[in-house]
Design goal:
There is one protein chain. The longest helix has 19 residues, at about 90-110. About 20% of the residues are buried. It contains 14 helices and ten strands. The chain is about 45% helix and about 15% strand.
Length: about 300
């Protein structure tokens, strides 16, 4: 976005509200014009980010104004790999692409057209496009350097993405306790960290379980500095406390679960003293965390 952009030309507008699209959070941005220069800042009125922007968001203007950014269609004029291109109009590009797709579908059917997207680049638009041409399946890949490793580790470990905190500001406002277990939100998902931080100011309790003294641990209500590799013992120890003190929903357990008696027998050996020895976490902290999670 530059001063030559149509949004600024012959306009008295000094700022424009927009949204960052460099990740799935969609934080609010304000593009501001001062002394014929454009700069970005966080939108404090945005319901999700409340004025926060990460380093990627701060670099969005550099991406928009990069001299290497493609701003119009290019058609190859040389051999593949020769890097020889010519500029063509949008109308020409759309017509040529549509004609080639029409010929392919006429000869081989709509399944000959493959549609792939990388979130957050207009997923629903491309899904609708794939459906409109008569082939409802399309390929969506998550190869972000930030989220993809987390999704892969979650799927291989738990069978689903359970550690990604899909937490909105409204949900956080209703949440009494937030457990950050092996997740470093301020470094890996700052927008969600801002939501947690705002909710904490309103009374939400935060428990951090991490061997490292991350920033979130410094401001948490409880920090359980668990010995690396002993997280399961810690979880079983907290279950021991919750079950022994009858802090769980007994009616729900009777109606909707099976094998609870075996779970009860299994966790009986994981007393606070034993778990403290295994995990290096003070037993008082283990008990306090279990009670806080269950009671809240």
């Amino acid at each position: 976005m530059t001063n030559e952009s149509p949004i600024w030309v012959n306009s008295s507008v000094d700022f424009v509200r927009t949204t960052c699209n460099l990740c799935l959070n969609g934080c609010g941005l304000i593009a501001n014009r001062e002394n014929n220069e454009i700069n970005l800042r966080g939108d404090k009125e945005h319901p999700l980010s409340h004025g926060f922007i990460c380093m990627k968001g701060k670099a969005a203007l550099d991406i928009a104004t990069s001299p290497y950014r493609l701003e119009y269609p290019m058609r190859r004029v040389g051999k593949r790999g020769s890097q020889k291109w010519e500029r063509i109009s949008w109308e020409t590009a759309m017509s040529e692409i549509a004609l080639k797709m029409k010929n392919l579908m006429g000869k081989y059917g709509p399944e000959s057209i493959a549609t792939q997207t990388l979130p957050p680049k207009d997923i629903h638009m491309w899904r609708a496009f794939a459906s409109a041409i008569g082939y409802a399946t399309y390929f969506r890949h998550d190869v972000h350097v930030c989220q993809a490793p987390q999704l892969l580790a979650d799927t291989l470990t738990f069978g689903n993405s359970i550690t990604y905190p899909n937490l909105t500001a409204d949900e956080a406002a209703r949440t009494k306790t937030f457990v950050m277990w092996g997740v470093n939100l301020p470094e890996t998902n700052p927008a969600k960290a801002a939501i947690v931080g705002n909710a904490k100011k309103s009374g939400m309790k935060v428990i951090v379980i991490d061997p490292r003294p991350i920033n979130a641990a410094r401001t948490a209500d409880l920090w359980l500095r668990v010995r690396p590799g002993t997280d399961m013992a810690l979880a079983l120890g907290m279950l021991n406390i919750i079950i022994k003190e009858h802090l769980y929903d007994e009616g729900f357990v009777r109606q909707w679960t099976y094998g609870f008696d075996r779970l009860m027998a299994h966790v009986e050996q994981y007393t606070p003293d034993k778990v403290s020895e295994i995990t290096w976490v003070d037993k008082e902290l283990i008990v306090e965390a279990a009670r806080l999670i269950a009671a809240n």
